[in-house]
Design brief:
5-stranded antiparallel sheet; single chain; 52% helix; 17 strands; Beta-Lactamase; alpha+beta; 580 residues; 5 domains
Length: 580
Amino acid sequence: MALLLGILHIFINYAVDGAFTYDTFFRAIMFLSIAYIVGAIAEKKDSLYDVLKSSDEKLRQVYDSLEQRVKERTAELRHINETLRSEISDRERAEKALRESEEKFRILTESSPAAILLYRGDELIYVNRTAELITGYTRDELLSGMPWKFVHPDNRATVSERAAARLRGEPVPKRYEVKIVTKGGEERWFDISADLISYGGVPTGLVSGIDITIRKKTERALIKSRAILARAQSIAHVGNWAWDLTTNEMQWSDEIFRIFGYEPKHLQPTFAWVIDHIYQDDRKLVNDSAEAVIKENKLFNIDYRIITAEGEIRYINCVADKLRRDAEGHPLWMYGIMQDITARKQGEEALQDAKAQAELYLDLMGHDINNMNQIGIGFLELALDTLKLDDRTRQMISKPLEALESSTQLISNVRKLQRAKDGGLMLHEMNVGETLGRLIPQYSRVAGRSIAINCHADRECLVLANDLLSDVFSNIIGNAVKHSSGPLTIDICLKKALIDDKQHCVVSIEDNGPGIPDDMKGELFMGHHRGKITTGSGLGLYLVKTLVEDFHGTVGVEDRIAGDYSKGCRFVVAIPALVK
């Protein structure tokens, strides 16, 4: 390109100047040289530019490669950083959870009512406060030395062997009871629960124990109580039963099996089985009674007969005392007791026979013998009134007359006792003052005697009694007359008085007769009492006591003058007053 330009320059100069001069040639050569130099420089520049351009491209590629590698490494570092941060956070959370778990474990174990122990190998590594309190050993004492020092020697080997086997992963009982000995020497019982856990990444034995000493004592007392109950039931021939109304099966105590003639637990009784062993005529009673409990909640107390395994007929008293229902009201269980009353029934039958015989004899005495007594009394009184007799003969006739009269009175007292015991007389309102008023004239006029009866009544006094009330006072006054001689003074006082915060009609009857010795006062109201002062049947004052008690009152005797029984006696009758 430079050469072409140089030639073009020479040609232009030639055309202008019309000649080819030295200056033109020199300028052309200079121009060509400069053109060549410029061309060479331009070519070198282009070459250098191409090289530079190629270097820039390579540099750019290297830069892009480095930048990509930096990005990738940065991403890797960021991921590693996030992973480390996550791992650190997880570790911190785990450490925090571990601290919280250990704190919860400490709080729970230290506040637990159960003794808690951790062990590894042949040593305890942790005990809680309860373990210290129960065993009496301090924490340091438990954690040092022999680990099971507090276990009773009878159980220590078992506990130690099972603890070691548990650490080896061998199957051993997880729960059992052991006896321990406290530091103070007291024997107590533990209910132990044991298991194998991982504690700090190491297999560790965990033992919790509950003090069951009181329960053990209760169990022993219960066993003893059951034995006593079984013995008592055997003696009394009483047993308890429970009837499962959903299955019809019955649960019996041992004595009921014996009542039916079987060994305890010999069979599984059902209600149908029981019905089959009840005397035919009594089955309806039992069925109806059971149905009334279930349908109407009417508990029963009935007597019926059973047939034992030996074919013997026995009398049974059966009581249903509880019925249990579910939430919907359906009957579930019926409970009660059963007693063999065969001996009682036989006794009652014998008593009824004896009573029938006694009533026969009483009727015989009350009618036939009493009639004969009346005939004898009539003839003797007629003899005394119509015959001219000397004193000795009159006395000889008077004695059998008194005996017949005593016999008649005895029969009368026996009949009154029978009526009182049988409850044949109903209680009704009676006026004590009027009753005494009717009696006094009967004893004021006794032939050959000077008898003064003084009666002091504050006011009207009503009681709940029956017609035998007069016999109470008649027997007391009659005894005063009969067991004295010569002049006699009887003072009767009727008044109201509070006894145990309740109004009573109190009647005191005192006399100046021979009195009653102290050693006889305690036996005076017993049946068939005989003594130096009282003679005869002894039923009179026994009748008094029986009647007064039937009226819910009391009767007693004391000296008229305290400390000197020979100055006479005082009978005091107190009967609850009728308040209108």
